[in-house]
């Protein structure tokens, strides 16, 4: 029997960004059980750590790492660091991004040039600074788990599909999905270093079922200043999520992050154990 999960809002320098209409775009409210929502934003990793840990616990206390599935419980995580924070190479942009397709059951695509793992600055290819030829990125962004971030190139849209780990071919669904973001700017202009006037929030995350219908969508909470961190994730009572679309910022990475444009990068992805559809 399904249980209804209460929405949990945990916001620092952010704002509740979900409406009831978003909870049931795909289903009748009588049949729809809303997910638990976890969100936080702040100036450093400690600002969001407790919310990330609560999200992990809700998905399952066990990190299933690269073990073949499907497993009955637990979660998968991708921190983009190659299992070693000393890895500071910048990977060439590719799409689809299949590095974790077999091992952790996740494939990522973008309508742009490709997706890349890169440290904020440094490394053989110069990190984000070299990838986008923009020296301001060295101080604009920060990593939640050292040392690399994840970003689309030539687009600000990333899509995730799920498969049974160890197969790379069997489509799957997950109970929940959450992600860490860096430098989602305060949209109301209250931040000390950014004034965005009346512009809306920039970073959106959308969840779809196996039929392509929207299950849930929300903007990611923001925090003022450079190199801030944000987290947003949801957990359903059962596996429903087949695809996730993330729109990071309101323009394609490359330009300076300034008053009229918000550039956003991604860090850790955390999601439930993929189950066959």
Task: Give the termini separation.
Answer: 19 Å
Rounded to an integer in angstroms, the radius of gyration calculated over CA atoms is 18 Å
How do the strands of the widest beta sheet line up side by side?
A: 1-11-8-13-2
Main sheet: strands, sense, barrel: 5 strands, antiparallel
**Please, how many helices?**
5
Strand content: 25-35%
**E-strand count:** 14
Helix coverage percent: 10-25%
Order of helices and strands: HEHEHEEHHEEEEEEEEEE
How would you describe the overall organization of this protein?
The chain is α+β, with helices and mostly antiparallel strands. It has one domain (20-276). It has helices at residues 20-23, 45-59, 101-104, 127-132, 137-140, and strands at residues 36-42, 75-78, 106-109, 114-119, 148-153, 157-162, 172-173, 176-182, 204-208, 214-219, 229-235, 243-247, 265-272, 275-276. It has a 5-stranded antiparallel beta sheet with strand order 1-11-8-13-2, covered by helices on one side. A 5-stranded antiparallel beta sheet has the order 3-6-12-9-10. A hairpin with a 5-residue loop joins strand 9 (204-208) and strand 10 (214-219). The chain is globular, with a radius of gyration of 18 Å.
Summarize the structure in short.
This protein has 277 residues and is an alpha+beta fold. It has five helices and 14 strands.
Question: Key features?
Answer:
277 residues; alpha+beta; 14 strands; 12% helix; disordered N terminus
Task: Please render the helix and strand layout as text.
Elements: H1 20-23, E1 36-42, H2 45-59, E2 75-78, H3 101-104, E3 106-109, E4 114-119, H4 127-132, H5 137-140, E5 148-153, E6 157-162, E7 172-173, E8 176-182, E9 204-208, E10 214-219, E11 229-235, E12 243-247, E13 265-272, E14 275-276
């Amino acid at each position: 029997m399904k249980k209804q999960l209460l929405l949990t809002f945990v916001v620092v320098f952010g704002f509740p960004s979900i409406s009831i209409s978003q909870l049931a775009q795909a289903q009748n409210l009588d049949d729809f059980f809303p997910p638990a929502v976890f969100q936080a934003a702040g100036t450093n990793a400690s600002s969001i750590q407790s919310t990330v840990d609560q999200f992990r616990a809700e998905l399952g206390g066990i990190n299933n790492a690269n073990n073949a599935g499907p497993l009955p419980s637990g979660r998968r995580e991708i921190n983009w660091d190659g299992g070693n924070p000393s890895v500071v190479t910048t990977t060439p942009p590719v799409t689809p991004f299949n590095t974790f397709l077999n091992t952790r059951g996740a494939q990522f695509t973008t309508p742009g040039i490709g997706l890349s793992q890169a440290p904020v600055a440094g490394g053989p290819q110069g990190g984000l600074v070299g990838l986008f030829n923009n020296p301001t990125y060295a101080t604009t962004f920060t990593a939640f788990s050292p040392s690399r971030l994840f970003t689309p190139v030539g687009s600000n849209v990333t899509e995730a599909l799920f498969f049974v780990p160890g197969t790379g071919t069997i489509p799957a669904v997950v109970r929940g999905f959450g992600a860490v973001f860096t430098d989602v700017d305060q949209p109301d202009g209250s931040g000390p270093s950014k004034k965005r006037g009346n512009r809306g929030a920039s970073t959106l995350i959308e969840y779809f079922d196996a039929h392509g219908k929207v299950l849930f969508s929300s903007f990611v909470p923001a925090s003022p200043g450079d190199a801030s961190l944000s987290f947003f994730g949801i957990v359903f009572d059962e596996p429903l999520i087949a695809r996730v679309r993330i729109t990071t910022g309101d323009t394609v990475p490359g330009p300076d992050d300034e008053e009229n444009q918000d550039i956003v990068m991604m860090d850790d992805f955390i999601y439930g154990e993929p189950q066959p559809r």
